Amino acid sequence: MNLRSASVLVLDDDPDILTAVRLLLKTQVREVTVERRPEALPNLLAARSFDVILLDMNYHSAVNTGNEGFFWLKRIKELGSAAAVIMITAYADIELAVRALKEGAADFVVKPWHNDKLLTTIQDALRPAGAAPAPAAPADPDLLGSSPAMQQIFRTLEKVAPTDANVLILGENGTGKDLVAQAVHRASRRAAGPFVKVDAGALTPSLFESELFGHRKGAFTDAREDRAGRFEAANGGTLFLDEIGNLGLAQQAKLLTALQSRQVTRLGSNQAIPVDIRLICATNVPLSELADERRFRKDLLYRINTVELLVPPLRSRPADVAVLARHFAAQYAAKYHRPAPTLSPAALRKLEHYAWPGNVRELQYTIERAVIMADAAELQPDDLLFSQLEPASTASAAAEGLTLSAVERNAILRVIEKHGGNITRAAQELGLTRTALYRRLNKHAL
Protein backbone atom coordinates (compact mmCIF):
# COMPACT_ATOMS: atom_id res chain seq x y z
CA MET A 1 0.00 0.00 0.00
CA ASN A 2 1.13 3.54 -0.77
CA LEU A 3 1.85 5.79 2.21
CA ARG A 4 -0.50 8.51 0.93
CA SER A 5 -3.48 6.13 0.91
CA ALA A 6 -2.92 4.91 4.47
CA SER A 7 -5.00 5.54 7.57
CA VAL A 8 -2.89 5.90 10.72
CA LEU A 9 -3.88 5.87 14.41
CA VAL A 10 -1.45 7.29 16.99
CA LEU A 11 -1.86 6.36 20.69
CA ASP A 12 0.35 8.26 23.15
CA ASP A 13 -0.36 10.09 26.40
CA ASP A 14 2.14 12.84 25.57
CA PRO A 15 0.27 15.69 23.81
CA ASP A 16 3.51 17.04 22.35
CA ILE A 17 4.18 13.69 20.66
CA LEU A 18 0.63 13.60 19.27
CA THR A 19 0.92 17.13 17.91
CA ALA A 20 4.28 16.47 16.29
CA VAL A 21 3.16 13.23 14.64
CA ARG A 22 -0.15 14.72 13.45
CA LEU A 23 1.63 17.69 11.84
CA LEU A 24 4.15 15.36 10.17
CA LEU A 25 1.63 12.85 8.86
CA LYS A 26 -1.27 15.07 7.81
CA THR A 27 0.44 15.85 4.49
CA GLN A 28 1.88 12.34 4.06
CA VAL A 29 -1.07 9.97 4.66
CA ARG A 30 -4.76 9.87 3.79
CA GLU A 31 -5.95 10.13 7.38
CA VAL A 32 -4.29 10.49 10.78
CA THR A 33 -6.14 10.03 14.09
CA VAL A 34 -4.55 10.82 17.46
CA GLU A 35 -5.70 9.63 20.88
CA ARG A 36 -4.28 10.09 24.40
CA ARG A 37 -6.37 7.40 26.12
CA PRO A 38 -5.65 3.78 25.19
CA GLU A 39 -9.04 2.84 26.71
CA ALA A 40 -10.65 4.43 23.65
CA LEU A 41 -8.98 1.88 21.38
CA PRO A 42 -11.89 -0.67 21.21
CA ASN A 43 -14.38 2.04 20.18
CA LEU A 44 -11.97 3.48 17.61
CA LEU A 45 -11.40 0.06 16.03
CA ALA A 46 -15.14 -0.65 16.02
CA ALA A 47 -15.86 2.63 14.22
CA ARG A 48 -13.26 2.39 11.48
CA SER A 49 -10.28 0.41 10.23
CA PHE A 50 -6.68 1.55 10.32
CA ASP A 51 -3.71 0.45 8.27
CA VAL A 52 -1.07 1.37 10.86
CA ILE A 53 -1.26 1.95 14.63
CA LEU A 54 1.55 3.78 16.44
CA LEU A 55 1.28 2.51 20.02
CA ASP A 56 3.19 3.88 23.02
CA MET A 57 4.78 1.33 25.36
CA ASN A 58 3.96 3.15 28.61
CA TYR A 59 1.04 5.26 29.92
CA HIS A 60 0.98 7.22 33.20
CA SER A 61 2.97 4.53 34.99
CA ALA A 62 5.74 5.46 37.41
CA VAL A 63 7.63 2.31 36.39
CA ASN A 64 8.27 1.75 32.68
CA THR A 65 7.44 -1.94 32.56
CA GLY A 66 5.87 -1.78 29.12
CA ASN A 67 2.98 -3.91 30.42
CA GLU A 68 0.36 -1.46 29.14
CA GLY A 69 1.88 -1.52 25.68
CA PHE A 70 1.91 -5.33 25.66
CA PHE A 71 -1.69 -5.41 26.92
CA TRP A 72 -2.98 -3.11 24.19
CA LEU A 73 -0.91 -4.85 21.53
CA LYS A 74 -2.64 -8.09 22.53
CA ARG A 75 -6.06 -6.37 22.56
CA ILE A 76 -5.53 -5.05 19.03
CA LYS A 77 -4.95 -8.62 17.86
CA GLU A 78 -7.95 -9.93 19.84
CA LEU A 79 -10.23 -7.27 18.32
CA GLY A 80 -9.38 -8.62 14.87
CA SER A 81 -7.61 -5.53 13.57
CA ALA A 82 -5.35 -6.13 10.58
CA ALA A 83 -3.40 -2.94 11.28
CA ALA A 84 0.37 -3.13 11.48
CA VAL A 85 1.38 -2.06 14.99
CA ILE A 86 4.51 0.05 15.45
CA MET A 87 5.58 0.44 19.07
CA ILE A 88 6.76 3.83 20.35
CA THR A 89 9.48 3.38 22.94
CA ALA A 90 11.88 5.49 24.93
CA TYR A 91 15.61 5.10 24.28
CA ALA A 92 16.10 3.24 27.58
CA ASP A 93 13.26 0.76 26.94
CA ILE A 94 14.70 -0.86 23.85
CA GLU A 95 14.63 -4.37 25.36
CA LEU A 96 10.86 -4.00 25.79
CA ALA A 97 10.50 -3.05 22.13
CA VAL A 98 12.44 -6.11 21.01
CA ARG A 99 10.11 -8.26 23.13
CA ALA A 100 7.14 -6.53 21.44
CA LEU A 101 8.43 -7.65 18.03
CA LYS A 102 8.34 -11.23 19.27
CA GLU A 103 4.73 -10.70 20.42
CA GLY A 104 3.44 -9.50 17.07
CA ALA A 105 4.44 -5.87 16.58
CA ALA A 106 5.52 -4.99 13.05
CA ASP A 107 8.32 -2.66 14.14
CA PHE A 108 9.30 -0.03 16.71
CA VAL A 109 10.53 3.56 16.74
CA VAL A 110 12.65 5.16 19.43
CA LYS A 111 11.88 8.62 20.86
CA PRO A 112 13.12 11.07 19.76
CA TRP A 113 13.07 9.99 16.13
CA HIS A 114 14.04 11.50 12.80
CA ASN A 115 10.97 12.27 10.70
CA ASP A 116 12.37 10.55 7.60
CA LYS A 117 13.03 7.40 9.66
CA LEU A 118 9.47 7.40 11.03
CA LEU A 119 7.98 7.73 7.55
CA THR A 120 10.18 4.91 6.25
CA THR A 121 9.13 2.69 9.16
CA ILE A 122 5.43 3.32 8.43
CA GLN A 123 5.94 2.67 4.72
CA ASP A 124 7.73 -0.61 5.47
CA ALA A 125 4.88 -1.66 7.77
CA LEU A 126 2.41 -1.09 4.92
CA ARG A 127 4.20 -3.53 2.65
CA PRO A 128 2.02 -6.59 1.92
CA ALA A 129 3.03 -9.82 3.62
CA GLY A 130 5.41 -11.76 1.41
CA ALA A 131 6.33 -8.74 -0.71
CA ALA A 132 10.02 -8.38 -1.35
CA PRO A 133 11.50 -5.55 0.71
CA ALA A 134 13.62 -2.90 -0.93
CA PRO A 135 17.31 -3.79 -1.04
CA ALA A 136 19.06 -2.64 2.08
CA ALA A 137 22.32 -0.75 1.91
CA PRO A 138 25.35 -2.26 3.62
CA ALA A 139 25.94 -0.81 7.05
CA ASP A 140 29.70 -0.82 6.51
CA PRO A 141 31.80 -0.41 3.34
CA ASP A 142 33.56 -3.72 4.00
CA LEU A 143 30.37 -5.59 4.95
CA LEU A 144 29.15 -6.70 1.53
CA GLY A 145 26.52 -9.02 0.16
CA SER A 146 23.40 -9.06 -2.00
CA SER A 147 22.08 -12.43 -0.80
CA PRO A 148 18.77 -12.52 1.14
CA ALA A 149 20.65 -13.54 4.30
CA MET A 150 22.94 -10.50 4.17
CA GLN A 151 20.09 -8.17 3.24
CA GLN A 152 18.30 -9.33 6.40
CA ILE A 153 21.41 -8.56 8.44
CA PHE A 154 21.59 -5.05 6.96
CA ARG A 155 17.93 -4.40 7.86
CA THR A 156 18.39 -5.69 11.39
CA LEU A 157 21.49 -3.52 11.80
CA GLU A 158 19.53 -0.47 10.66
CA LYS A 159 16.97 -1.04 13.42
CA VAL A 160 19.28 -2.18 16.19
CA ALA A 161 22.31 0.08 15.76
CA PRO A 162 20.68 3.38 16.88
CA THR A 163 19.59 1.75 20.14
CA ASP A 164 21.67 0.72 23.14
CA ALA A 165 20.51 -2.91 22.97
CA ASN A 166 23.13 -5.56 23.72
CA VAL A 167 23.92 -7.59 20.61
CA LEU A 168 25.12 -11.19 20.36
CA ILE A 169 26.69 -12.04 17.00
CA LEU A 170 26.75 -15.74 16.14
CA GLY A 171 28.55 -17.42 13.28
CA GLU A 172 31.43 -19.62 12.22
CA ASN A 173 35.02 -18.41 12.23
CA GLY A 174 35.83 -16.19 9.28
CA THR A 175 32.28 -15.03 8.54
CA GLY A 176 32.96 -11.40 9.46
CA LYS A 177 31.48 -11.09 12.95
CA ASP A 178 33.98 -8.34 13.81
CA LEU A 179 32.84 -6.33 10.76
CA VAL A 180 29.24 -6.65 11.92
CA ALA A 181 30.23 -5.40 15.38
CA GLN A 182 32.03 -2.40 13.89
CA ALA A 183 29.04 -1.65 11.67
CA VAL A 184 26.73 -1.61 14.70
CA HIS A 185 29.06 0.84 16.46
CA ARG A 186 29.47 3.16 13.46
CA ALA A 187 25.71 3.41 12.96
CA SER A 188 25.00 3.95 16.67
CA ARG A 189 24.63 7.07 18.79
CA ARG A 190 28.02 6.15 20.25
CA ALA A 191 29.89 6.34 16.94
CA ALA A 192 31.99 9.27 18.17
CA GLY A 193 33.05 7.22 21.21
CA PRO A 194 35.67 4.46 21.37
CA PHE A 195 35.24 0.97 19.93
CA VAL A 196 37.23 -1.39 22.13
CA LYS A 197 37.70 -5.01 21.04
CA VAL A 198 38.71 -7.76 23.45
CA ASP A 199 39.53 -11.33 22.43
CA ALA A 200 37.86 -12.88 25.46
CA GLY A 201 38.97 -16.37 24.45
CA ALA A 202 42.63 -15.33 24.72
CA LEU A 203 42.34 -14.04 28.29
CA THR A 204 43.72 -16.45 30.86
CA PRO A 205 41.94 -16.55 34.25
CA SER A 206 44.83 -14.63 35.82
CA LEU A 207 44.64 -11.83 33.21
CA PHE A 208 40.85 -11.59 32.92
CA GLU A 209 40.15 -9.10 35.73
CA SER A 210 43.23 -6.98 35.09
CA GLU A 211 42.50 -6.66 31.35
CA LEU A 212 38.78 -5.95 31.68
CA PHE A 213 38.58 -4.06 34.97
CA GLY A 214 42.10 -2.60 35.32
CA HIS A 215 44.46 -2.61 38.31
CA ARG A 216 46.17 -0.40 40.82
CA LYS A 217 49.94 -0.12 41.15
CA GLY A 218 51.23 -3.01 43.27
CA ALA A 219 48.08 -5.13 42.89
CA PHE A 220 50.33 -7.97 41.66
CA THR A 221 53.99 -8.52 40.83
CA ASP A 222 54.10 -6.81 37.42
CA ALA A 223 51.62 -4.02 38.26
CA ARG A 224 54.13 -1.14 38.16
CA GLU A 225 51.54 1.58 37.61
CA ASP A 226 47.80 2.22 37.71
CA ARG A 227 46.07 0.94 34.58
CA ALA A 228 42.53 1.33 33.29
CA GLY A 229 40.80 -1.79 32.02
CA ARG A 230 38.90 -2.27 28.78
CA PHE A 231 35.56 -1.35 30.38
CA GLU A 232 36.92 2.08 31.30
CA ALA A 233 38.59 2.46 27.91
CA ALA A 234 35.22 1.85 26.22
CA ASN A 235 33.36 4.36 28.41
CA GLY A 236 30.95 6.35 26.26
CA GLY A 237 31.38 3.92 23.39
CA THR A 238 31.18 0.22 22.57
CA LEU A 239 32.87 -2.78 24.18
CA PHE A 240 33.17 -5.76 21.81
CA LEU A 241 33.88 -9.08 23.51
CA ASP A 242 34.92 -11.54 20.82
CA GLU A 243 34.88 -15.34 21.40
CA ILE A 244 32.86 -14.90 24.58
CA GLY A 245 31.82 -18.55 24.38
CA ASN A 246 35.31 -19.56 25.48
CA LEU A 247 35.11 -17.83 28.88
CA GLY A 248 35.15 -20.06 31.94
CA LEU A 249 32.26 -20.03 34.42
CA ALA A 250 34.24 -18.06 37.02
CA GLN A 251 35.04 -15.31 34.51
CA GLN A 252 31.40 -15.29 33.36
CA ALA A 253 30.26 -14.58 36.93
CA LYS A 254 32.61 -11.59 37.22
CA LEU A 255 31.52 -10.26 33.85
CA LEU A 256 27.84 -10.57 34.79
CA THR A 257 28.42 -8.62 38.00
CA ALA A 258 30.04 -5.76 36.08
CA LEU A 259 27.23 -5.67 33.51
CA GLN A 260 24.49 -5.69 36.13
CA SER A 261 26.05 -2.97 38.29
CA ARG A 262 27.41 -0.91 35.38
CA GLN A 263 30.56 -0.35 37.36
CA VAL A 264 33.98 -1.95 37.75
CA THR A 265 36.53 -2.15 40.53
CA ARG A 266 40.22 -2.24 39.63
CA LEU A 267 42.33 -5.00 41.12
CA GLY A 268 43.91 -3.75 44.33
CA SER A 269 41.23 -1.10 44.85
CA ASN A 270 37.94 -0.88 46.73
CA GLN A 271 36.58 2.05 44.73
CA ALA A 272 33.84 1.23 42.23
CA ILE A 273 34.08 3.14 38.93
CA PRO A 274 30.84 3.69 36.95
CA VAL A 275 31.03 2.84 33.24
CA ASP A 276 28.70 3.63 30.36
CA ILE A 277 29.16 1.13 27.54
CA ARG A 278 27.19 -0.55 24.80
CA LEU A 279 28.02 -4.27 24.81
CA ILE A 280 28.46 -6.41 21.70
CA CYS A 281 29.53 -10.03 22.00
CA ALA A 282 30.46 -12.62 19.40
CA THR A 283 31.07 -16.36 19.41
CA ASN A 284 31.43 -19.26 17.03
CA VAL A 285 29.74 -21.53 19.59
CA PRO A 286 26.19 -22.45 18.51
CA LEU A 287 23.44 -20.95 20.66
CA SER A 288 22.24 -24.44 21.56
CA GLU A 289 25.61 -25.12 23.20
CA LEU A 290 25.68 -21.75 24.96
CA ALA A 291 22.30 -22.58 26.47
CA ASP A 292 23.92 -25.51 28.33
CA GLU A 293 24.41 -24.17 31.87
CA ARG A 294 27.33 -26.51 32.40
CA ARG A 295 29.17 -24.42 29.83
CA PHE A 296 27.63 -20.95 29.97
CA ARG A 297 25.59 -19.11 32.61
CA LYS A 298 22.03 -18.66 31.42
CA ASP A 299 21.62 -15.36 33.31
CA LEU A 300 24.63 -13.97 31.44
CA LEU A 301 23.29 -15.28 28.14
CA TYR A 302 20.00 -13.44 28.69
CA ARG A 303 21.96 -10.30 29.57
CA ILE A 304 24.09 -10.24 26.40
CA ASN A 305 21.61 -11.34 23.73
CA THR A 306 18.86 -8.75 23.67
CA VAL A 307 19.24 -9.05 19.89
CA GLU A 308 20.89 -11.96 18.11
CA LEU A 309 22.55 -11.66 14.72
CA LEU A 310 23.46 -14.87 12.91
CA VAL A 311 26.10 -14.29 10.24
CA PRO A 312 25.66 -17.06 7.64
CA PRO A 313 28.60 -19.12 6.34
CA LEU A 314 29.81 -18.21 2.87
CA ARG A 315 28.83 -21.63 1.46
CA SER A 316 25.17 -20.80 2.17
CA ARG A 317 25.29 -17.57 0.13
CA PRO A 318 27.16 -18.27 -3.12
CA ALA A 319 25.55 -15.18 -4.68
CA ASP A 320 27.90 -13.07 -2.54
CA VAL A 321 31.12 -14.77 -3.66
CA ALA A 322 31.58 -12.73 -6.85
CA VAL A 323 31.03 -9.33 -5.22
CA LEU A 324 33.38 -10.21 -2.36
CA ALA A 325 36.03 -11.56 -4.73
CA ARG A 326 35.96 -8.38 -6.83
CA HIS A 327 36.14 -6.26 -3.67
CA PHE A 328 39.21 -8.12 -2.40
CA ALA A 329 40.85 -8.04 -5.85
CA ALA A 330 40.57 -4.24 -5.96
CA GLN A 331 41.67 -3.93 -2.32
CA TYR A 332 44.85 -5.99 -2.73
CA ALA A 333 45.68 -4.53 -6.11
CA ALA A 334 45.79 -1.12 -4.44
CA LYS A 335 47.81 -2.49 -1.52
CA TYR A 336 50.45 -4.08 -3.75
CA HIS A 337 50.43 -1.28 -6.38
CA ARG A 338 49.16 -3.47 -9.19
CA PRO A 339 46.41 -2.91 -11.77
CA ALA A 340 43.07 -4.16 -10.47
CA PRO A 341 42.49 -7.58 -12.10
CA THR A 342 39.22 -8.91 -13.45
CA LEU A 343 37.99 -12.44 -12.87
CA SER A 344 37.20 -14.67 -15.83
CA PRO A 345 33.82 -16.46 -15.91
CA ALA A 346 35.64 -19.76 -15.31
CA ALA A 347 37.43 -18.31 -12.28
CA LEU A 348 34.14 -17.09 -10.84
CA ARG A 349 32.58 -20.52 -11.37
CA LYS A 350 35.47 -22.14 -9.51
CA LEU A 351 35.00 -19.74 -6.60
CA GLU A 352 31.23 -20.19 -6.49
CA HIS A 353 31.43 -24.00 -6.48
CA TYR A 354 33.95 -24.22 -3.64
CA ALA A 355 32.55 -24.92 -0.15
CA TRP A 356 34.63 -22.27 1.68
CA PRO A 357 35.11 -24.00 5.04
CA GLY A 358 37.23 -20.99 6.06
CA ASN A 359 34.43 -18.62 5.00
CA VAL A 360 35.07 -15.03 3.90
CA ARG A 361 38.52 -14.98 5.50
CA GLU A 362 39.62 -17.90 3.31
CA LEU A 363 38.23 -16.18 0.20
CA GLN A 364 40.12 -13.02 1.16
CA TYR A 365 43.45 -14.86 1.43
CA THR A 366 42.76 -16.77 -1.79
CA ILE A 367 42.27 -13.54 -3.74
CA GLU A 368 45.28 -11.89 -2.07
CA ARG A 369 47.53 -14.75 -3.22
CA ALA A 370 46.06 -14.57 -6.72
CA VAL A 371 46.67 -10.82 -7.01
CA ILE A 372 50.29 -11.28 -5.91
CA MET A 373 51.11 -14.29 -8.10
CA ALA A 374 49.02 -13.79 -11.26
CA ASP A 375 50.81 -12.74 -14.45
CA ALA A 376 47.79 -11.63 -16.50
CA ALA A 377 45.24 -8.85 -15.94
CA GLU A 378 42.41 -11.40 -15.83
CA LEU A 379 42.45 -14.05 -13.11
CA GLN A 380 41.97 -17.61 -14.37
CA PRO A 381 41.02 -20.79 -12.44
CA ASP A 382 44.68 -21.83 -12.17
CA ASP A 383 45.44 -18.57 -10.33
CA LEU A 384 43.05 -19.51 -7.53
CA LEU A 385 44.70 -21.88 -5.08
CA PHE A 386 42.67 -22.89 -2.06
CA SER A 387 44.18 -23.03 1.41
CA GLN A 388 46.13 -26.14 2.36
CA LEU A 389 44.63 -25.73 5.82
CA GLU A 390 41.33 -26.83 4.29
CA PRO A 391 41.94 -30.10 2.37
CA ALA A 392 39.37 -31.30 -0.13
CA SER A 393 37.85 -33.76 2.32
CA THR A 394 37.42 -30.94 4.83
CA ALA A 395 35.73 -28.72 2.26
CA SER A 396 33.39 -31.55 1.30
CA ALA A 397 32.51 -32.16 4.94
CA ALA A 398 31.70 -28.48 5.38
CA ALA A 399 29.47 -28.55 2.31
CA GLU A 400 27.61 -31.51 3.76
CA GLY A 401 26.84 -29.58 6.94
CA LEU A 402 29.65 -30.63 9.30
CA THR A 403 30.16 -27.81 11.81
CA LEU A 404 33.24 -25.67 11.36
CA SER A 405 34.18 -26.47 14.96
CA ALA A 406 34.41 -30.17 14.06
CA VAL A 407 36.28 -29.36 10.85
CA GLU A 408 38.83 -27.28 12.78
CA ARG A 409 39.27 -30.02 15.38
CA ASN A 410 39.91 -32.67 12.73
CA ALA A 411 42.35 -30.45 10.84
CA ILE A 412 44.36 -29.75 14.01
CA LEU A 413 44.48 -33.45 14.88
CA ARG A 414 45.77 -34.37 11.42
CA VAL A 415 48.57 -31.78 11.49
CA ILE A 416 49.65 -32.69 15.03
CA GLU A 417 49.74 -36.38 14.10
CA LYS A 418 51.73 -35.53 10.96
CA HIS A 419 54.42 -33.88 13.09
CA GLY A 420 54.45 -36.57 15.76
CA GLY A 421 52.99 -34.33 18.44
CA ASN A 422 55.48 -31.49 17.90
CA ILE A 423 53.35 -28.42 18.78
CA THR A 424 55.83 -25.89 17.39
CA ARG A 425 55.92 -27.48 13.93
CA ALA A 426 52.17 -28.06 13.93
CA ALA A 427 51.55 -24.40 14.79
CA GLN A 428 53.88 -23.27 11.99
CA GLU A 429 52.06 -25.39 9.40
CA LEU A 430 48.66 -24.17 10.62
CA GLY A 431 49.82 -20.56 10.51
CA LEU A 432 49.22 -20.09 14.24
CA THR A 433 51.33 -19.11 17.21
CA ARG A 434 51.98 -21.78 19.85
CA THR A 435 49.69 -19.86 22.24
CA ALA A 436 46.87 -19.73 19.70
CA LEU A 437 47.23 -23.45 19.01
CA TYR A 438 47.14 -24.25 22.73
CA ARG A 439 43.92 -22.21 23.02
CA ARG A 440 42.37 -24.29 20.27
CA LEU A 441 43.54 -27.51 21.91
CA ASN A 442 41.79 -26.42 25.10
CA LYS A 443 38.73 -25.35 23.17
CA HIS A 444 38.38 -28.78 21.55
CA ALA A 445 39.39 -30.68 24.70
CA LEU A 446 42.40 -32.24 22.92
From TrEMBL:
Residues 7-126 form the Response regulatory domain. The keyword Transcription regulation applies. One of its GO terms (molecular function) is sequence-specific DNA binding. Keywords: ATP-binding, Nucleotide-binding, Phosphoprotein, Transcription, Transcription regulation. Residues 143-372 form the Sigma-54 factor interaction domain. Gene3D superfamilies: 1.10.8.60, 3.40.50.2300, Homeodomain-like (1.10.10.60), P-loop containing nucleotide triphosphate hydrolases (3.40.50.300). GO terms for biological process: phosphorelay signal transduction system; regulation of DNA-templated transcription. It comes from the Bacteria. Pfam families: AAA_lid_14, HTH_8, Response_reg, Sigma54_activat. The keyword Lipid biosynthesis does not apply. The modification 4-aspartylphosphate is found at D56. InterPro entries: AAA+_ATPase, AAA_lid_NorR, CheY-like_superfamily, Homeodomain-like_sf, HTH_Fis, P-loop_NTPase, Sig_transdc_resp-reg_receiver, Sigma_54_int. This is Sigma-54-dependent Fis family transcriptional regulator. It comes from Hymenobacter edaphi.
